[in-house]
Amino acid sequence: QGNEAFKARDYPTAIGHYTTAILADGNDPTFYLNRAAAYLKLGKNEDAERDSTKVLSLNPNNVKAFFRRGQARRPLGNFDGCPPRVKSFFIDFNEALRLEPSNISVKNELADLEKASREMQAKPPRRRRVPIEVIEPEADKHPATKDEPLLQPVSSRDLRSETTQETKEQPPRKPQTFADAKQARASKDVRVSGGIFRPSGNHTIVTRRADQASREPTSGTAATAPVRSPMTLFDFTKSWNSLETDEARWKLMRTIPPTSLPALFQASLEPDLLKSILHTLQAVCNPSTRSAVRDYLTALMRVQRFGTVMLFMDKRERQRLESLRQEVESL
Question: Contact 83/117 with Cβ under 8 angstroms?
């Protein structure tokens, strides 16, 4: 069943069948070897490397195990600062060629590595140019002479004449008569804002200045906060479930870089959430968003437990994934 699913390019289902076979018989290297091939198809290089190493522990001279482990380790390596001959994947390919000198696939991989090595050596090293600005102290335009002291006396009080000093704002004078007080009240811009009203007519009115009223918060629609990228899986799930349309959910997903999805979900991806995400990706997929949908789908397939979660999906959801994958690959 695993081989049939692999031939049908249903790699998550194939991984599930191979895992079931490993649980039944963990000493058969064929199951680990086949599951490593399915992991390579999904880009899960770490898992493919682990299964290939397990095969070599059971069968140290397995050529396919060396070859597939080299394929899994190559994307994890880096040519910068180190020639490829010292890389572990280069050692795996050489060991596979030693065991089977006529293997064409191994020879092609080694030739590709040699070509990549020559291209890296031919490229000049990158040099980072950092602009340096030299700041020299400005020369003293009036150097002190022998007759002039180096230090000038400084007074702690203002030596300017009283005529040049800035005038300070004087506090308003208190009214001397009732007429002056009434005129002062009339000149102020005040409005009645409450008070105590008595039957006798001696009301206590509380007034408020116009500048104080202007500081009151005005009613209106608050500015909507921009959509923020969720920091944790809990925040993402909460925000995702609160949205009702595929367009809004797609907008939320675009705030997360595709390469950050494996770190965000880790090993906590749930079937219901995956089903909802696949539905949204298929709904928003069009010629203008096809490239972005492909990036998110590829990153989603690299999440831990993706193959295990797909086992809990029904046939319709697996067909949705295959249809979406073929649609984005046609780009």
Answer: yes
Amino acid at 186: A
**pLDDT over 80 at 163, yes or no:** no
Residue 254 contacts residue 216 (beta carbons within 8 Å): no
Return the exposure string of 159-195: e unless at least 16 CB atoms fall within 10 Å of the residue's CB, then b. Answer: eeeeeeeeeeeeeeeeeeeeeeeeeeeeeeeeeeeee
Instruction: Give 137's DSSP letter.
Output: P
Range of lowest pLDDT (105-109, 162-166, 202-206): 162-166
pLDDT at 35 over 90: yes
- What φ, ψ does residue 74 adopt, rounded to 5°? -60, -45
Q: Do residues 64 and 81 touch, judged by C-beta distance below 8 A? A: no
- For 305, left (φ over 0), alpha (ψ -120 to 50), or beta? left
Q: Which of 38, 29, 27 is closest to 1 using CA atoms?
A: 38
Half-sphere exposure at residue 42, Cβ-oriented, CA atoms within 13 angstroms: 31
Q: Which residues of 101-126 are buried (b: 16+ CB within 10 A; e: fewer)?
A: eebeebeebbeebeeebeeeeeeeee
Three-state DSSP class for residue 87: coil
Q: What is the pTM of this model?
A: 0.36
Q: In which element (H, E) is residue 53 found? A: helix 45-58
User: Which residues does residue 196 pair with via DSSP β-bridges, in sequence order?
Assistant: 204
* pLDDT (mean) for 56-72: 87
Residue 172 vs residues 169, 181, 184: alpha-carbon distances, Å: 9, 12, 10
